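Comment on this:
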Amino acid sequence: MSLPVKPLSTVDPHWIIPVPLYFAGFPVSAHWAYSLAGRLSDSMGFNDIEIEVVSRWHDMGEPEPFMAPRFCRSVTGDYIIYFLSITGTEPEMHRSELEYFYKHRDGILARAMDLLRLTEDEKELVKTKLFKWHRHMKTKKREPALGEGECLMWTPPIRSSEGPVGTSALAD
């Protein structure tokens, strides 16, 4: 079998082909991210989560290893909580961060999950299934939202005769 031989087409010079970003982290649904802010503090907004985590880390005496978790909106409309981001064209610019991250990956993740106050079930799902390198490339096309088993997801509280049981559930 042979490939067809065709001349390369020219690209409009006004088009910009984005370079993908790579994030080391884990995806969460948008609703889960907003519910996390409520779990951490009644008066905290979503944008304050990163500041709250770093503040708690300072209060603990700044133990190492640590990289502040940050939030990035993904093409699905959900979020990626990430520790390191690298463009596909400039990996050498971040060599020292990469080395630190690879050397201390498990410790960085464990400390961040504790500071974010993730439940034991959430921690297990992140460690075993969700924590990895994620490729992010802006496009004009909106991708469908992440489904069950692809990110941490929020479910409404379960009401019983004894009151609310919980506010967070995990996708399998």
